[in-house]
Amino acid sequence: MTQPQPLSFEFFPPKTAEGAEKLRITRRQLAQFKPEYCSVTFGAGGSTQDGTLTAVLEIQSEGLAAAPHLSCIGSSRVRISEILQQYRASGIRHVVALRGDIPSGMLDVGEFRYANELVAFIREQHGDWFHIEVAAYPEYHPQSNSAEADLRAFVNKVNAGADAAITQYFFNPDAYFHFVDEVRARGVTIPIVPGIMPIQNFNQLSRFSDMCGAEIPRWLRLRLQSFGDDTASIRAFGLDYVTELCDKLLDNGAPGLHFYTLNAAGAVSTVCQRLGR
Ligand code: FAD
C-alpha cells in the first residue's frame, strides 16, 4: 500500500502562559494525524525569537519532529550564526529559512537582503546538517517586480541549497500547479508543499490576504461575504472548500500539505479527518 502524503503543522510562539497552554492542547489534538514535523514561526526584527526555540524544544520533548523558522532581515551574520549554533546544539536538523517581512520603521535591513543569502550562509556554516525549507509564492510575492523576476529569485534560492519549499497559502489550485510547472521547467526538482489556510473568519482572512498577496477569488470572496456575521456558515463553507482544495492538490501530485494552524486545532483536525487521516 502506498503511504499517504505527509502533513505538517505550523504554529506561532505563544506570548502568554495561557497561549502556551492553548498551544499544548492544540498540539495534543493534532498529534493524532502523525505530522511529519511541526514548524514554529520566527518574528522578524526580534519580536518572538526566543519563543521560537522554546516552542520547538517543547514539541521535540513531546516526541514530534520540529522545525524552527529563521528569518534574516535586520540581522547580522554573527547573530544568525549564534542562533544556528543554538539550534544545532539542541539537536535541531530542520529549519525554514526566510527573509522575513521588513518591520515598519526598520532603517537598517542588516547583513542579509534576501533568503537565498541566508540559505547559502547556512550551507556554508553547517554543510548538510540542516534540512532547509524555503518559501514559495504561487501567486507571486507582493514585492516582486514581475512574475519572471520572482520565479528567477525562487530558482536562485533553491540553487543556494534548499531541500524543499512550502508555499504561501492560496485558494486557487491552478496557481499552485502553474507555479510548479514553471519552476520544473527551470530545472527545480525539490518538493513544493502547498501551504493551507483554513477559512474561519472572513474579515481577518481578507486583511491578512491583502497584506501577504494571497488572492481570495472574487466568487469565493462574494460567497463568504454573503454569510455576513453568520460565523457558523462561514466555517462550514470554509471546511468544505478547503477540504476540496486539499483533495485536488493531493490527487494531482502535491507531495504533502502544510497547515497554517494559527495555533488552533478545530478546523485543521476536521479537514484532516475528512481527508481520511
Ligand atoms: P525572498 O525569497 O528573499 O524574497 C523576497 C522578495 O525579494 C521577493 O519579492 C523576491 O522576488 C525578491 N528577491 C529575492 N531575491 C532577490 C534578488 N536577488 N534581487 C532582487 N529581488 C529579489 N516571515 C517571518 O517573519 N517569520 C516567519 O516565521 C515566516 N514564516 C513563513 C513561512 C512560509 C511558508 C511563508 C510562505 C512565509 C513566511 N514568512 C515569515 C513571510 C516571509 O518572510 C515574507 O513573505 C517575506 O516578505 C519574504 O520572505 P522570503 O523568504 O520568501 O524572501
UniProtKB/TrEMBL annotation:
Organism annotation: Amantichitinum ursilacus
EC number: 1.5.1.54
NAD listed as a keyword: yes
Keyword Oxidoreductase among UniProt keywords: yes
Pathway: Amino-acid biosynthesis; L-methionine biosynthesis via de novo pathway; One-carbon metabolism; tetrahydrofolate interconversion
UniProt GO MF annotations: FAD binding; methylenetetrahydrofolate reductase (NADH) activity
Record-level GO cellular component terms: cytosol
Alphabetical list of Gene3D superfamilies matching this protein: 3.20.20.220
Identification of the protein by name: Methylenetetrahydrofolate reductase
Keywords: Amino-acid biosynthesis, FAD, Flavoprotein, Methionine biosynthesis, NAD, Oxidoreductase
PANTHER family, A to Z: METHYLENETETRAHYDROFOLATE REDUCTASE, METHYLENETETRAHYDROFOLATE REDUCTASE (NADPH)
Cofactor(s) the protein requires to work: FAD
GO biological process terms held by the UniProt record: methionine biosynthetic process; tetrahydrofolate interconversion
Similarity field: Belongs to the methylenetetrahydrofolate reductase family.
Top EC class for this record: oxidoreductase
Reactions catalysed: (6S)-5-methyl-5,6,7,8-tetrahydrofolate + NAD(+) = (6R)-5,10-methylene-5,6,7,8-tetrahydrofolate + NADH + H(+)
